[in-house]
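dumping this here so i dont lose it again. seq + smiles for zinc ion
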Amino acid sequence: MISCSLHAQNKNDQQVDRPKLVVGIMVDQMRWDYLYRYYDRYTDGGFKRLLNEGFSCENTYINYVPTITAIGHSSVYTGTTPAVHGIAGNDFIIQATGRRMYCTEDETVTPLGTSSENTAGKMSPRNLLASTITDELKLASNFRSKVIGIAIKDRGAILPAGHFADAAYWFDNSGDWISSSYYMKDLPQWVKNFNKQKLAEKYLKQDWNTLYPIETYKQSIEDNNPYEGKFKGTQTPTFPIKTSQLLKDNGLGLVATTPYGNTLTLDLAKAAIEHENMGHNPTGFPDFLALSISSPDKIGHQFAINSIEVEDNYLRLDKDLETFFNYLDQTIGKGQYTVFLTADHGAAHNPQFYMDNQGNGGYFNSGTAKDGLNDLLKAKFNQEKLVISLSNYQVHLNNKLILEKNLDESAIRAQAVKYLRNLDGVAFVTDMDKASEAAIPNRIKERIINGYNYKRSGAIQIILEPQWYSGSPKAKGTTHGNWNPYDAHIPLVWMGWGVKHGATNRVTNMTDIAATLAGLLHIQEPNGSIGSPITEVINH
Ligand SMILES: [Zn+2]
């Protein structure tokens, strides 16, 4: 280690050697196997370039449950899990009060680029308890590195950019990119100009057709099938998707559920690099662009993972990435920037599709389970509504009421665990105070404990059988949230400055990404980090 840091310092007049720009790309809902499922039709310059030039950590897992968007973005950038960083869901329940909180809600800030009443703009990273690697870069550079987060989803932009970010921009259903007064007083002129181009509308007017002839989509089931959700205003979930006509019923927010959402996000990323002069910091410190590509998640949720829509999305995203990497080569310089691409979670098969093909799976009805539980607890403890919510596969008890009525909390928990264990599709249930002794395989147990934040998570955790998830029977599309490989095995590919070429099959964790970045950049790891650097990646 000593010789390597000396080497770094000697090379460039006592300046520590660092990339000019770091670009984090989180592809929302990208399963690891998508790198290979559609490989044959990827271009040389997108996903294949990452694999062929860069370093792939082939067995990277999410080391907590629930595997959900806000937690994934937080955990990658903080190097830790909900137990420490506090983002326990997209929404979570403050256990002391029973109040539901959205991960990035912030009543104290004012929206920018939209009406002051638009709650979509009342967002900030304040609920995130730990520092991010982007925060650490800010601290290491005495706040001179520039950090910007961009994503269609607010949480995908805000959480990665961290507390000290210069800006985070997210997409409003009006068609504009917005921000909040947490970051600045007013939207920069270049963002206002970007919005004036009305790109969302321009893209949607082109309709969504398949990139290649539809009969060549061999990795997907037939286009007209019973597992896909339809857009409002359509009869069948099939191509061509006439987004030009669907605009009327769906509004410009429709762009988020098409591959144009990817293009639009990367358009704004390029504009940010250009107008903020990112990657040319006079201090020698890198700037950091934290991108999240939200549309693959929306498309996956609606059409499920074996659809032509999902296949087409990845073929198009691949081309967009090629264009984006070429742009980075030209503006920053090949080998002068570091890119990593990963995901916040994967996705399951549609359970009905799985069962129709003789696989084992099912739909767990959280609402019915919650009602059954409340009936049982009322009979035992003579008190209504002891369960506030069954969400994120956790039971949230009415702690205020339990305290007020002086009820026996451990007896309530024991009854609830016993009841839930017998429900169809339930594999394990544990009272979180007893999780470490529970008869649950270690890897699952570790993920349960990592995901549990005492103040923000439910006191009882449910783990379903494989290929079961929460939803009503025959529900269309798909979802994610569980510990299983389909939800928890994510891509992690690095490329560019400081990155070796190669791959490892060693098991690594999502929480190792921040520590690896800290090693690459010679900066401190985030303040709640529990990860370890993936040393195979680092070329110095
Ligand atoms: Zn997500």
